[in-house]
Amino acid sequence: MSVTAVIPAYNEEETIGEVVSKVKAHKLVNNVIVISDGSEDNTAAIARDTGAEVIELESNLGKGAAIQTGIDIAKGDIILFLDADLLRLTLEHIDQLLLPVINQEAEMTVGVFTAGRFTTDLAQKITPFLSGQRAVKSKLLDDIASLEMTQFGVEIALTQYAKENNIKIKEVELQDLTHVMKEEKLGVFKGLRARLKMYWEIIKNLPRNKIK
Ligand SMILES: O=c1ccn([C@@H]2O[C@H](COP(=O)(O)OP(=O)(O)O)[C@@H](O)[C@H]2O)c(=O)[nH]1
Ligand SMILES: O=C(O)[C@@H](COP(=O)(O)O)O[C@H]1O[C@H](CO)[C@@H](O)[C@H](O)[C@H]1O
């Protein structure tokens, strides 16, 4: 089975290189696509230099649009979704996401941070269905309504679609994995503002895609 990694990235120059290198080094991953979502920093150049195929969106359209762009161009049997701001990603984490789908144990995996940083572990324990770390059989996404407008509601939409279509989901625990929090990227004030905006984008997607 061939695997394409899809990595949405908005201003992630600090972490994109490490994430792309790790994914490129995984023997089961055939293609790595980074969707630079209107980044104003060196995200696209670093991703390209590290060996990813890079699609640059002209402006910042939101995570849902970046993911949809990746889905539209990804070839192969399985799509591996990873965030660009991961810290301490290992080849084992990628195995954990991919193998249950390759071995037909599940049709979609959702990776949940554990035994890493208290704050990011806690957030994912409370809302595992928001995780951006997933693997899914690509053909199962053929009929999904466009994710383009979902922004940070994209994971809610994916999870809800899986539930409605009896797609078998397996949660896998990704030890020690964490990401750079918004407050760390942007500072406390702008970070909190971005967090509130994210919650609003998630809430906006709830009525249409209510979690059962
Ligand atoms: O407008 C956006 C916002 C975020 N992202 C990407 O989506 C992923 C998750 O976003 P973020 O890091 O802000 O959220 P967190 O992981 O902190 O919840 C990251 O790879 C971001 O670069 C994106 O492509 N477009
Ligand atoms: O863990 C969370 O509560 C949020 C926000 O993380 P941070 O504010 O950056 O620590 O991140 C998750 O939810 C987002 C929206 O669904 C996803 O896009 C991220 O992939 C996921 O990590």
TrEMBL record:
Glycosyltransferase 2-like domain sequence ranges: 5-125
SUPFAM superfamilies in alphabetical order: Nucleotide-diphospho-sugar transferases
InterPro entries on file: Glyco_trans_2-like, Glycosyltransferase_2, Nucleotide-diphossugar_trans
Broad EC category: transferase
Catalytic reaction(s) noted: an NDP-alpha-D-glucose + (2R)-3-phosphoglycerate = (2R)-2-O-(alpha-D-glucopyranosyl)-3-phospho-glycerate + a ribonucleoside 5'-diphosphate + H(+); (2R)-3-phosphoglycerate + UDP-alpha-D-glucose = (2R)-2-O-(alpha-D-glucopyranosyl)-3-phospho-glycerate + UDP + H(+)
Signal peptide: none
Residue stretches spanning the membrane: none
Keyword Transcription: no
Gene Ontology molecular function, alphabetical: glycosyltransferase activity
Domain of life: Bacteria
UniProt keyword annotations, A-Z: Glycosyltransferase, Magnesium, Transferase
EC number: 2.4.1.266
Family according to the record: Belongs to the glycosyltransferase 2 family.
Protein name: Glucosyl-3-phosphoglycerate synthase
Organism for this UniProt entry: Halobacteroides halobius (strain ATCC 35273 / DSM 5150 / MD-1)
